[in-house]
Design goal:
four-stranded antiparallel β-sheet, 11 strands
Length: about 210
């Protein structure tokens, strides 16, 4: 009886360890998805500089990366590079995984990781930022399972006014990797060029 219970426990623990959590990497390092900058926080940052982000009508699009080469078996990796040269990797590990990012972009983005060499998303000529959501997409008789990408384009309300440049964006992401919650207040400190230090320790890297 003891041996049977131990065997059952071993099987259970093995099953638990198979399913890992969704992971987001920026330039090879993990960012907790809870710490990823959100659209409202980024808009607070722009507003602090007398600017804002505005949705561009008609830019909401959907693309799906299919993973037939791996028989539609998880995990699914999606990689891409934003307009300010940060390299990202999204690792979808379960069917319930769902993550939304705000990234600097332009008129097009290229996504890598599916069966095709790359998948292109085109957007309006005014697009400078995008809110992008990644979710698991079930397969069908005709298509393998994959990752659904929802893309929504935004523009800066006041062109030529204060903006988030490469240094400011990298500072925001550096703070996220240290475990700082990227709130409007933190964004405003970044806008003012203030020194910000992580409180409560750094986020663990995996």
């Amino acid at each position: 009886m003891i041996k049977t219970s131990a065997l059952c426990l071993l099987i259970f623990m093995t099953f638990v360890n198979i399913t890992e959590a969704l992971k987001v990497f920026r330039n090879g390092k993990v960012i907790s998805r809870e710490q990823i900058p959100k659209m409202e926080g980024l808009r607070d940052l722009f507003r602090a500089g007398n600017n804002d982000l505005v949705y561009i009508e008609g830019t909401r699009t959907y693309d799906t990366l299919r993973y037939g080469d791996s028989d539609g078996q998880l995990p699914f990796n999606v990689t891409f590079t934003d307009r300010l040269a940060n390299n990202w990797k999204i690792v979808i590990n379960s069917q319930s995984d769902d993550v939304t990012l705000v990234i600097p972009t332009g008129t097009q983005m290229f996504w890598f990781g599916g069966d095709d060499s790359r998948t292109r998303t085109g957007s309006d000529a005014q697009t400078s930022w995008a809110q992008v959501q990644f979710t698991y997409q079930p397969g069908s008789w005709l298509n393998a399972a994959g990752v659904r990408i929802s893309f929504t384009g935004y523009k800066e309300a006041n062109a030529g006014e204060w903006t988030v440049d490469t240094n400011r964006w990298n500072n925001i992401l550096d703070l996220a990797q240290k475990g700082v919650e990227i709130t409007g207040a933190v964004m405003e400190q970044v806008a003012q060029g203030a020194a910000i230090y992580a409180s409560g320790g750094a986020a663990g890297e995996k």
